[in-house]
Amino acid sequence: MIKKLASCVGEYKKYAIATPIIMLGEAIMEILLPLIMANMIDYGIQDKNIAYTVKMGLLMILCTLISLSCGAGGGICASKAAMGFAKNLRSKLFHKVQTFSFANVDKFSTASLVTRLTTDVTNTQNAFQMMIRMAIRAPAMMIGAAIMAIRINPSLSSIFIVVIPILGVCLYLIMSRAHPRFGIMMEKYDALNTSVQENLTGIRVVKAFVREEHENKKFDASADAVRKAQLRAEKLVILNSPVMQLCMYGCILAVLWFGGNMVINGTFQIGKLSSFISYVTQTLMSLMMLSMVIMMITISMASIRRICEVLDEEPVIREDAHPVEEVKDGSIEFSNVSFSYAGDSNNLTLQHINLSIASGETIGVIGGTGSAKSTLVQLIPRLYDIQSGSIKVGGVDVRKYDKEVLRNAVSMVLQKNVLFSGTIRDNLRWGNENATDEEIIEACKAADAYEFIQSFPYGLDTDLGQGGVNVSGGQKQRLCIARALLKKPKIIILDDSTSAVDTATDARIRAALRRDLKGTTTLIIAQRITSVQDADKVIVLNDGMVDDFGTPAELMERNEIYREVYTQQQKGAKE
Asked: How far apart are CA 235 and CA 496, in angstroms?
């Protein structure tokens, strides 16, 4: 895990290396100060040697300034290294997530991935910063101060040497029990983020159904679960400080008692006692800092594990070793295709699908709710991999294509329309980043979106807000269709993408698509039978299987499902 994360230091390695070196300089100065002070007391003040006292005083000031400079320099370098490390780690995580298929994202959940990219990375950043600042300084000071104390008075040093193993055992017990509790705490954070994400995404539904109180209670429950998990973990960690302080002050009291008696008996100089106490304090404080580093690492280990789970995740969809780099045409062929979201052959969403669609054909797809219409079309650009059979686009198995090449040849207007923060022009250029304004206007006219765009004060430069909150559902659908048209694809898939527009607008869009998409294979998933009446052929799905496939006229004669949908909708239209 550490090796995997260490590569994220990257271009900030010089700061990461410089930090412990500079902090070592601070530690050396800190160790020298008590020794200089002891000499100043014993050989300057007590002997009334003013020149020597001033000399030692100036030397102490110099050491203090060097220590201060090293401390400040080390802090600056550590901050730069840690922030750079966090930036690279977030980038590495985000880029990894971009390689995931839908199945990989479904495994982690969106809220969990957000937590790992934010809270978990921050925890790891804090541990990294603490480690590079203290991992060298604390042991160096602890060892150096201990050696100096032993040199001053070996017998008196036995007091704190006995205490160190006791502190080590206490630290181990705290650390081993705290680690799993922090793992549970991060899982509670995932649940909290899920609650927030669902509420903010569906805020209009919450308001419409007056469910604010329910959502408040759900959030309060999640927040309280985080509090309890955090309290359960932290109450172990906070034991570290009182245990350390108890041992430290106990040692100082013992040193003062025994060392004071030695001074009274004339066997120990007061300056040396003073410096000895300073070294004991430095030794135990360094041990405390080291324990804090270990504790911080313990806290972050749960976050590190969760980050590495994402980095170690293998994308379900893999590239072919020698991918095909061109999609010749928009023909589609399903050969005995079966698919399961769970990857379980005993729980299939689609079963034994056999279809042959010629390039340039317009194909309608209808079926009841849960008949796997959206699933069927999502397999064409290989958003999921199938369990068995094969899907060919342009005569080549989709698994043989470079994913980017395949998906660039397929435009999808998903059932759930997604727009991003920015202007209308920015969003439309997702389809073609080099599209001219003339091409954008042409696509908008084909999608019957140009008229309402022109009604906005800023036209194409109108800011849509986050998720397209400034446009209606029907307007959002038409913008998504225009965006898909700008790709000039070989295959376009409209997944119930005109459900929020009226029938007249739907008819205009279909007419424009027939006119502008000659040679492009068009798949239209629709609930309205009128949306597929002009199609060359219609696929009728039922419970994950193809119930029938033929022209609208043929299906009207022989297919009960198609005829029933047609009759019900025509009856509803007349009423």
From this structure: 53
DSSP 8-state class, residue 346: T
The C-alpha atoms of residue 224 and residue 229 are separated, in whole angstroms, by 9
Strand order of the sheet with strand 362-367?
410-413, 491-495, 521-525, 362-367, 537-542, 545-550
Quick one: which of 282, 291, 277, 296 has its CA closest to 244? 291
93, 117 Cβ separation under 8 angstroms = yes
Distance CA 142, CA 152 (A): 15
**Residue pLDDT, tens place only, 40-51:** 887 888 778 888
Helix ranges restricted to H, 238-269: 240-264
Residues 58, 70: Cα–Cα separation, whole Å? 18
> Which tokens is 546 given?
């193809």
pLDDT > 70 fraction of the chain, expressed in percent and rounded: 97
**The total number of residues written for the chain in this structure:** 575
Measured distance CA(504)–CA(527) in Å, rounded: 15
Mean pLDDT of 362-381: 88
Query: In this predicted structure, what is the pLDDT of residue 251?
Result: 80
Q: What is the pLDDT of residues 482-501, one digit of tens each?
A: 888 888 889 998 887 776 66
The H or E element spanning position 495 is: strand 491-495
User: Looking up tokens 């990857």, which residue turns up?
Assistant: 343
Q: What is the pLDDT of residue 80?
A: 93
